[in-house]
Amino acid sequence: MTPASDESALALAEAVRGGERTARSAVDAALEAIAGRDPELHAFLHVAADEARASADLVDETVRTGMDPGPLAGVPIALKDNLCTRGIPTTCASRILEGWRPPYDATVVRRLRDAGAVVVGKTNLDEFAMGSSTENSCAGPTHHPLDPSRVPGGSSGGSAAAVAAALVPLGLGSDTGGSVRQPAALCGVVGMKPTYGVVSRYGLVAFASSLDQIGPFARSVADAALLLEVIAGHDPMDSTSLDRPAPKAGRSLEAGVDGLRVGVCDELVDDTAPDVCRRVREAAEDLAKAGALVEEVSVPEIRLGLSAYYLIAPAEASSNLARYDGVRYGLRVDAPDVSAMNTATRTAGFGPEVKRRIMLGTYALSAGYYDAYYGKAQRVRTLLIRAFDRVYEHLDVLLGATAPTTAFAIGERVADPLTMYMSDVCTIPSNLSGHPAMSVPFGVGDDGLPVGVQVLAPALCEERMFQVAAALERAAAARAGATDKEGAR
């Protein structure tokens, strides 16, 4: 099946706004591509075809009346199925929310609609965003677009696969421990996590409230910057939303990196697979050639991130998921009394990984263990934040791998949770610190599958981070062009 379009979101929106292309034609192409390819990929849990066509017609009518429908006019977008969409199923890939249709839109969804984007469907994920492979879904796994025997990463694997397969130009995911960046790296697309509080969490079904952030998927850095600018900004409906304007992420994409100080982080390179390590080193070399001041740097506290995260995140999940009791919405398993009904509902409704994390979190928060586990993990988090602050006193950004390996086989790590958790070892530190970070495709590994290089930046430095990411994107394109010429000879 031919992809819907390799056209950028920027170009498509410009064509729709200028009347050279209709939003309806763009949406029909996306729906046709989804119908042709998604039975193999299983990226979507729900395709909102009728709603998408109706929204596209409204965009076209706005253009016909001479009004501007917005910066994403007519651009089809896929949403991770933990973002509330009014009247459209939002299940978090869990039996316990089967068939639930929210009565409201998440703030990011409303902002997308206001910008002229068209939601075409909801994508698969690890249940309640708990996983690194999109295998922990009640609906079954999503498959990698380049090799269906491999995982697309997780937990936002459905959105990553949909964008990588060119079914849609843009996608949204949520990133609690790397759930946008890691699948972006494995699928070969751009994915980023904003500074905590830059994008509203209102309408995002909570996993770990102090870590969750919504972020974009795109096939180019420029498209990702545009999407971030649309969804970011203060929201009074979210008490953790920062009272400041959306970042101008796309303003400095052509500025280059001359004079910028880049630290290649040992802890985000040395423990990765050799082919991934080579790509990161090549990226650093290319930035140096472009004028950046590149140096090696060590942040030992990063190695503590994984263990701290797997106490903090499950503890917050234990609290957040207590609301799913079979009383108000979603699945209900009848039983003789309320307590038995609650137990039966949660037993039937939650999958193994969600149950594992609820039990871990409940234990960490229980009397006699709170200080030893949860309290200590929070102190480690503070140590990590202070370590990043020290490094950023003399560096503008950090560079490292996004994921320690390329995409692994479906089923390879399901029975080994600790190995699965290691998939996020490079991304978790930025969630604990609340800082922005993004993954940029940079070549392939020895198996021919994509490798992502990660750019990390201080809080609220999205513009600088995108500036470096754009330089990496140009360097990766130059390397790919040189390889193609060599092959032609």
Task: Please summarize what this structure is.
The protein has 489 residues and is α/β, with parallel strands linked by helices. It contains 15 helices and eleven strands.
Q: What would you note in describing this structure?
A:
With 489 residues, the protein is of the alpha/beta class. It folds into two domains: 408 residues, Amidase signature (AS) domain (Amidase signature (AS) enzymes), CATH 3.90.1300.10; 72 residues, no CATH class. It is 40% helix and 12% strand. An eleven-stranded mixed β-sheet has the order 1-3-2-4-6-5-10-11-9-7-8, with helices on both faces. Helix 9 crosses helix 11 and helix 9 crosses helix 12. The relative contact order is 0.13. The model has no long low-confidence stretch (mean pLDDT 96).
| The number of domains | 2
Overall pLDDT confidence? 96
Compute the number of helices: 15
Query: Portion of residues in helices?
Result: 25-40%
Q: State which percent range the strand residues make up.
A: 5-15%
The CATH topology of the largest domain turns out to be Amidase signature (AS) enzymes
- How many distinct beta strands? 11
CATH class of the largest domain: Alpha Beta
**What's the shape?**
globular
Broad structural category: alpha/beta
Instruction: Characterize the largest beta sheet: strand count, sense, and whether it forms a barrel.
Output: 11 strands, mixed
* Strand line-up in the sheet with most strands: 1-3-2-4-6-5-10-11-9-7-8
Question: What is the succession of H and E elements?
Answer: HHEHEHEHEHEEHEHEHHHHEHHEEH
CATH-wise, what's the superfamily of the largest domain?
Amidase signature (AS) domain
CA-atom Rg in angstroms = 21 Å
